[in-house]
Amino acid sequence: MKRLDTITFTSDFGWSWGYVAVCEGLMTRLSPQARIFHLGHDVPPGDVAAGALILERTTPMFPPAVHLAVVDPGVGTVRRPLALAAQRGDLLVGPDNGLLVPAAKALGGIAGAWLLDLVRVRTEAGLPTEEVSFTFHGRDLFAPAAALLSSGLEPSRLGHPLDPGSLVTLPAPVVETCGESVVAEVIEVDRFGNVGLALRFADLGRKEGFYRVEIVDETLPEWTARVVHTFAELGSGELGVYCDSWGHVALTLKAASAAQLLSVERGLKVRLTALPTAEARRGEDSRL
Fold first, then answer.
1. Which of 7, 49, 172, 276 has the most crowded CB, counting CB atoms within 10 A?
2. DSSP string for residues in the chain
3. Is 1 a domain residue?
4. Single residue among 119, 138, 166 that ends a domain in this structure
5. Is the pTM of this model over 0.85?
6. Is the pLDDT of residue 286 over 80?
7. What's the CATH code of the domain at 63?
8. Does residue 234 share a domain with residue 146?
9. Residue 60: CB partners within 8 Å, gap ≥ 6?
10. Measured between alpha carbons, how far is 188 from 182 in angstroms, rounded to an integer?
């Protein structure tokens, strides 16, 4: 197997208490030639879909690599530990809870899947097989597996083949179009308060003018948003609709948090309805 000198690492561990550091230290010890890149460790605790989105977006930007991801609320249960091969030549390591599959598809599709065997992994790594935590497989199973794969070890040395069709997959985020309206699930709220939707901007019906913004199934106010290309086009306190850096529809508020204004979080659904210009301006005047 070809050696992969890049390892990426994503988790919901946070940076405190040494959880990330101990995994990095172990990988560095087992695969000293590897460079380790941290995609992020502030995934909301147990939020598999958020971790999957980060992986799907970022892994294609790297050269072929080993991608270690641990967002694992089912650690220690019957959930399966995985190694996946992608068509591009990457390997992905983590739990079978839907976390890895979107990234594998973004890397050309799944070329192979293996059920990691803890005893095999730790034996190959020269680690004791009896000193294993039920709640920290990131350190005791996944990090050693990632390091061994980075050094060129065949996945078959670490586990048993799996049918890729048996892997857990996450439900697709909601996108529903009806006439001049579209309902899309919130898939991201960034640190600036911008609200990313599952809808691709290319699929937005009207790419100029105004939209009415409603939060589905919530008794919240309606808002009027204007389609813009840049944040600078917005006036103070004006809500905007724009194409984010991932090609998705997003909502923004100049110099403030659109998420706070709209009282939304990931998983809620937003309805956008194209408005005639005159009606949009009346709505805008009533809000601003």
1. 7
2. -----EEEEEES--SSTTHHHHHHHHHHHH-TT-EEEEEES-SPTT-HHHHHHHHHHHGGGSSS-EEEEE--TTTTSSPPEEEEEETTS-EEEEESSSSSHHHHHHTT-EEEEEEE-HHHHHHHTT--SS---SS-HIIIIIHHHHHHHHTT--GGGTEEE--GGGS--PPPPPEEEETTEEEEEEEEE-TT--EEEEEEGGG-S-SSSEEEEEETTS----EEEEE-SSGGGSPTT-EEEEE-TTSEEEEEETTB-HHHHHT--TT-EEEEEEE-HHHHHHHHHHH-
3. no
4. 166
5. yes
6. no
7. 3.40.50.10790
8. no
9. 88, 106, 107
10. 17
- Verify that 276 and 197 share a domain, yes or no: yes
Band of the pLDDT at 288, cuts 50, 70, 90?
very low
For residue range 40-71, list pLDDT tens digits in order. Answer: 999 999 999 999 999 999 999 999 999 999 99
Which CATH number fits the domain that encloses residue 205? 2.40.30.90
Q: Is there a single domain that holds both residue 154 and residue 27?
A: yes
Q: How far is CA 148 from CA 5, 41, 130, in A?
A: 11, 22, 19
What domain range includes position 18?
6-166
- The mean-pLDDT minimum among 126-135, 248-257, 269-278 falls in 269-278
In a domain, 59, yes or no: yes
